[in-house]
Amino acid sequence: MMSLDLRTIVFIHLLVTLLSTLVITQLWLQNRSRVQGSGYWAADYALQALALVLVGLRGVIPDWLSIVVGNSVGLLGAALAYVGLCRFAGLATWGTQNYLLVAVFSVIHSYFAVIQPDLTARNINVASTLAIICGQCAYVALRRGPHVMLRESRVVGAVFLGYVVVSLARVVRYLYVPLETQDYFKAGGFESLAMTGLLLLAVLLTFAVALMYNGRILHDLRAQEEKFSKAFHSSPYGVLLSRISDGCILEANEGFFKMIGSTAREVLGRSALDLGLWLDPEERKRLIADVKEGKPVHQRQLQFCRKSGEPFAALLSSDLVPVGGEACLVSSIDDITERQRIDAALAEQLNELKRWYVASQGREGRVVELKREVNALLAEQQRPARYPAAADER
Predict the structure, then answer these.
(1) End-to-end CA distance of the chain
(2) CA-wise closest residue to 206 among 150, 169, 168, 159
(3) What's the rounded Cα separation, in Å, for the pair 240 and 235?
(4) Rounded distance, CA 164 to CA 158, Å?
(5) Cβ within 8 Å of residue 246, ≥6 positions away
(6) Do residues 310 and 301 lie in contact, with contact meaning Cβ atoms separated by under 8 Å?
(7) Given a cut of 80, is residue 393 above it in pLDDT?
């Protein structure tokens, strides 16, 4: 059977890894604040690309650099992928055991590369170490993450199981059929087949990771939308979402419908101007101008109209939100008609109390004056004062 060219496979693997690095790095830059762990994946792909460069330059650069450093860098990248997967799953770990494993690997690889060159032992060392790390990744992706994460990472876990299967197959093969050469690029058809399998798995892993992160982002967006929807529809105030361009009401809550005395069928798809909601349409123009200029619109007192034509006072708060690429306005309207009526009644009662107080104060003063006049008349008659304390009263 004609064997595949290992150097060509490594070169293709390098090109694929470089492209994957760009994809994963872009994913990290766009979503690093939303999803944890993507930075570790970007570092993993970068290290895998560096490892393939060092392996591909075997015979051009020193063997220790290509064999020991190259393979150690690749396995270090796998260890970082494990940390990234754990962070994605919400597991607090640095993967210290894998760093120690890579250190032990490097010592063993150095021995079989420099002191006692043995390609078979090196291949077993690489394959067994990779199997251990990928096995941990598969376990996290399939078993340890929360329920939501399991749905998103199922494909990633399956790909890592594929890495484990290929790596264990290499271990078993070389335990029973040692290589007769020390030149890796002449390792034969089985190694070419194994590397082709790893290449395909690398392509699948890139797609799986991208799908996993996009799935998490979509899940988070749906959760945020659900929270917004609950807050929107359960608010005791009237809340509505309208386009700025034409004022068309896209969504409104039950509080708004009750406030203006209309139904959803009568309101949605129509503008506030068509509904006659604004008592003074010029107020809407001023509101839109302020919002576009970035001026805060918070509890601005305005006059609106109900479906019956009855005017009512309300406090309006509005802000810009993009919806489907269009500028929209989310507004909260607090009907203060009843509040104003109560405030006016309280103010009238307070004024009445003030009037009574002033009147009572006047009567008390007049009584004191009368007492003093009686005392003065009695004094003219040289008689004792009837109200001795009146002189001290104020």
Answers:
(1) 124
(2) 159
(3) 11
(4) 10
(5) 271
(6) no
(7) no
- How far, in Å, CA of 218 to CA of 228, rounded? 15
Residues in the chain: 394
Non-local CB neighbours of 19 within 8 Å, separated by 6+ positions: none
Specify whether the CB–CB gap between 251 and 268 falls below 8 A: yes
- Residue 96 has a CB neighbour count (10 Å cut-off) of 10
Residue 1 pLDDT class (50, 70, 90 cuts) = very low
Q: Which tokens is 116 given?
A: 């006692």
Can you tell me the distance from the alpha carbon of 229 to that of 300, in angstroms, rounded to the nearest whole number? Answer: 24
Give the contacts of 266 (CB within 8 A, at least 6 positions apart): 275, 307
Residue 35's contacts (CB-CB under 8 Å, 6 or more residues apart) are: 88, 213, 216, 217, 220
Tokens, residue 362: 């006047």
- Does 120 score more than 90 pLDDT? yes
Q: Which long-range contacts (CB under 8 A, 24 or more apart) does 99-107 make?
A: 101/75, 101/129, 101/132, 101/133, 102/72, 102/75, 102/76, 102/129, 105/71, 105/72, 105/75, 105/129, 106/68, 106/72
Of the CA atoms within 13 Å of residue 231, those in its CB half-sphere come to 8
DSSP E strand stretches across 205-358: 238-243, 249-252, 297-305, 311-323, 326-335
Higher pLDDT, 222 or 13: 13
Quick one: pLDDT band at residue 149, thresholds 50, 70, 90? Answer: low
b (16+ CB within 10 A) / e for 271-306 = bbeebebbeeeeebeebbeebeeeeebeeeebebbb
pTM (two decimals): 0.68
Name the band, by pLDDT with cuts 50, 70 and 90, for residue 92: confident
Could you give the 3-state DSSP secondary structure of residue 381?
Answer: coil
pLDDT band for position 296 (cuts 50, 70, 90): confident
pLDDT of residue 167: 95
- What is the C-alpha separation between 233 and 253, in angstroms, rounded? 5
Stretch 339-354: mean pLDDT, rounded?
A: 78
Sign (positive or negative) of CA dihedral 312, 314, 319, 324 = negative
pLDDT at 159: 94
Q: What is the mean pLDDT of residues 91-103?
A: 90
Transcribe 118-165 into DSSP letters: -HHHHHHHHHHHHHHHHHHHHHIIIIIS-HHHHHHHHHHHHHHHHHHH
Q: Residue 309, Cβ neighbours under 10 Å: how many?
A: 7
